Amino acid sequence: MKKVLLSFFVLTLTACMSTDPYTGQQKTSNTAKGAGIGALTGAVIGAATSSSDDRKKGALIGAAGGAAIGGGIGFYMDKQEAALRAKLEGTGVRVVREGDNIRLIMPGNITFGVDRHEVRPEFYPTLESVAIVLKEFNKTAIRIAGHTDSSGSDSYNQTLSEKRAASVGQYLSSHGVSYGRIQVSGYGERYPIASNDTEGGRQANRRVELELVPLQ
Q1: How deeply is 56 buried, as exposed, middle or buried, from its count of CB atoms within 10 A (0-12, 13-18, 19+)?
Q2: Rounded to two decimals, what is the model's pTM?
Q3: Are 96 and 84 in contact (CB under 8 A)?
Q4: d(CA 69, CA 173)
Q5: Where do the domains of the chain lie, and which CATH numbers do they carry?
Q6: C-alpha to C-alpha distance for 168 and 208, rounded to whole angstroms
Q7: Strand 101-107 relative to strand 94-98: parallel, antiparallel, unpaired?
Q8: Among 4-8, 18-22, 106-110, which range has the highest average pLDDT?
Q9: I need a labelling partner for 63 at 20 to 30 A (CA). Which of 38, 79, 109, 132 fits?
Q10: CB-count burial class (<10 Å; 0-12, 13-18, 19+) for 215
Q11: From CA 214, how far away is CA 31, in angstroms rounded?
Q12: Tell me: the pLDDT tens digits for 23-67?
């Protein structure tokens, strides 16, 4: 049984190896990882719910079903990630993949004016590109988080971060993204990604992040 499951897992990962276009190295795609995890989960469930005589058969059936489900989510997010990277190249927005989730990091210096929560007009085309992809890939929830640096009071920064996140959410909604998919939050200065002791660090901390999460 263990040999069967291990062989299935290895074959699934090997089949989905690809070449990273940035480094030239071989890597396992997120589709393969999802398929592998799904296969193991399905196999365990299949074996557990089968009789002793049919346990190996149940494991194989469960593994195949689990691989299809897990791989499907990974493949869907792979396609969405590729579309976002193509649309956002050169805009200053960072696309970060974390498992089956995708984060878009939008620096404050290109998104908002100083101490303002309205989206800069020159940033409209970038957000419109994001909206186009989000409408195409509508099986993801969208978590929008606003962040600030440590300048100003805690309460002021909290309010500003909420307003900035809401501005991005409203823009996406006004361009056809269902508001039911959008969750808006502000975190003020609580989650810095750089030191607030330097201007460069404070600038990095003033940001809005979009996290795209598959709807399962």
Answers
A1: middle
A2: 0.70
A3: no
A4: 30
A5: 2-77 (no CATH), 90-214 (3.30.1330.60)
A6: 8
A7: antiparallel
A8: 106-110
A9: 79
A10: exposed
A11: 13
A12: 444 555 555 555 555 544 444 444 444 455 555 555 445 544 544
Please give the DSSP secondary-structure letter assigned to residue 206.
S
Q: How far apart are CA 210 and CA 42, in angstroms?
A: 31
Count how many residues are written for the chain: 216
By DSSP bridging, strand 17-19 and strand 140-147 are: unpaired
| Residues 177 and 109: beta-carbon distance below 8 Å | no
User: Each residue of 136-191: pLDDT tens digit?
Assistant: 999 999 999 999 999 999 999 999 999 999 999 999 999 999 999 999 999 999 99
Q: Which of 42-46, 75-79, 127-131, 138-142 has the lowest mean pLDDT?
A: 42-46
